[in-house]
Each structure stands twice: as structure tokens, then as C-alpha cells.
Amino acid sequence: RISGFDLIVAADVLVYFGSISNLIKVFASVSEPGSILIFSCERATNEEAPLGWRLLSSGRFAHTKSHAIESASNVGYELFHYEEIVPRIERGEDVKGHLFGFILKNDEKEL
């Protein structure tokens, strides 16, 4: 068996995906139990994005905290860190974002 990744970091990358469920599923499938997943994304509220994500006028996607946590939890990740951040400044305005840290808890993933 080939070993998987111990760490996956995606900084300001998930803004190019609508639902992130399948992407996180792939991350889990190529990772070892105990591995770390860290990512940032633009922030949306549940009211703004009832599906868990929404397309912004910038052409990027924003995601809800609950969509990110549910997508990761469904494939065996456990949240160990969360904070609201400003991932970048765009046209002089702070962009609202989140930073997530997850650990892959077991090898019994729903893949």
C-alpha cells in the first residue's frame, strides 16, 4: 500500500468550487488517518447560502461554516480549529473568510 498525505493545505483555493463535499472526500481518500487538513474559504451565512455555498459577483464561491464542517465530518474529519479571517483585501475592502483545521480521525471513511 502506498502511504497517503499527512498534511493538505488549501489557502484561498476552495473559492473556485461550489459544493466542497466531493473535494473534501478526495482529500480524505488520499490521506492517512491522523492527517491534517487546513483550508480557508470565503464566508457566507446560512441565510445567504441555504445550500451551504453561493456564487458571488466576483465569480468566486462563498461557503457556510456548517457546509464545511458537515462535508469534512461526513468523511471522517474532526474540527480542531476554526476562526473568522480576512483572507485578502479586494478593491480596498476586507473579504470575509474562515480558516478551518481538521484531523482525519479514522480509516472508516464514507468514500
Draw up the topology in text.
Layout: E1 5-10, H1 21-29, E2 31-43, E3 53-55, E4 61-63, H2 65-73, E5 77-85, E6 89-90, E7 93-94, E8 97-104
Parallel strand pairs: 1-2, 2-4
Antiparallel strand pairs: 2-8, 3-4, 5-8, 6-7
Helix pairs in contact: 1-2
Quick summary of this structure?
Helix content is 16%, strand content 41%. The protein is an alpha/beta fold and 111 residues long.
Describe this structure in words.
This protein has 111 residues and is of the alpha/beta class. The chain is built from two helices and eight strands, in the order βαβββαββββ. 16% of the residues lie in helices and 41% in strands. A hairpin with a 2-residue loop joins strand 6 and strand 7.
Shape: globular
Q: What's the helical proportion of residues?
A: 10-25%
> Average pLDDT, to the nearest integer?
93
Uncertain segments are none
Structural class: alpha/beta
What is Rg?
Answer: 14 Å
User: What is the overall number of helices?
Assistant: 2
What characterizes the major β-sheet?
6 strands, mixed
N-to-C span: 17 Å
Keywords:
single chain, 111 residues, alpha/beta, two-stranded antiparallel sheet, 41% strand
